[in-house]
UniProtKB/TrEMBL annotation:
It comes from Rotaria magnacalcarata. It comes from the Eukaryota. This is Uncharacterized protein.
Amino acid sequence: AKERLVAYFENGPGRECQIDHLYFERRSQRWPIIVNESFYEQIIGDKNKSFQYDLFGMKFEPNLQSYGFSNLRAYESVCSEVLKLCNLDPTSTIFLQYFSDIGILPLIASQHVDQSYGLDPSQFAIKAAIKTQEKYPHTENVQFNVCTKKDEFKTVLTKIEQNKKKNASLTCVFGPTRGELERQDLRQNKFIVSVLRECDLIDRLIVVHRGV
């Protein structure tokens, strides 16, 4: 399969696509999908040149284990619309996103708010977000953390409530979720959403359905 892909994209009709990077995915089993247990081998492209997304004037270097985006332009449009709904400047002073993935929204929001949080159940996504954050000193106020349990999420919200300034508002974004989720992850998402619904601290809640 790898040889056919290389032949198609390097020497065949696929040359017109002008692909810079192509990765071949291996899994220990086909079904059910085990999230975070895939291996990716680069078969086209310079292995010394990092694969990056150019979004909102920043360069994001994804970890392939953090899933990436099947339609980058659509994802950028979704992010733009979410930021409009957040109305971060000047009414919101705290921003939090669950399923922050590679950190796009928290890093952008950090330029308009006092505190910005990015939470994600994937350690690979959080590592990728922190790697991007290190390139941009003006985003140092963003706090990225792995969050997989309802109690962990409650702890984050409690700390925000304890440290928030008087009259500060909190905007929360949930999603977009990823497609390759196991049943236990879907169940955990339900618990996270229940915490969001019951939290009186939140002034604005935006739920983004995965449609990209």
